[in-house]
Fold:
Amino acid sequence: QVQLVESGGGLVQAGGSLRLSCAASGRAFSHYAMGWFRQPPGKEREYVAAISRSSGSKSFADSAKGRFTISRDNAKNTVYLQMNSLNPEDSAIYYCAARLVDSGSHYFTRQYEYAYWGQGTQVTVSS
Structure:
């Protein structure tokens, strides 16, 4: 089992950047594929980005392509979401999620594919 704690959220002006971190505790972080999701105010939670356990495969939602990057440091048990060129539509609670996998090349983009979730971190982008 893995426990996830997000950090790095906050208030930023449009056009600014934030880096979110998700620290995992527990065993064998390198055996988990990781994902980021977000829930804007009044809306359902949606997919943002995902990364395989080996970092060899990555995926982004259309809304994130070209602006967000996802990375992980297995030695630090942490996955990151670097967000650039933020706009007010990016305001949301951001969640990281983890799924135990056998191989290193798979990533997952659907919420039901993840077994473990953090509590979320708030990102607010002002116009």
The two ends are 40 Å apart (CA to CA). The chain is about 0% helix and 50% strand. The longest strand covers residues 18-26.
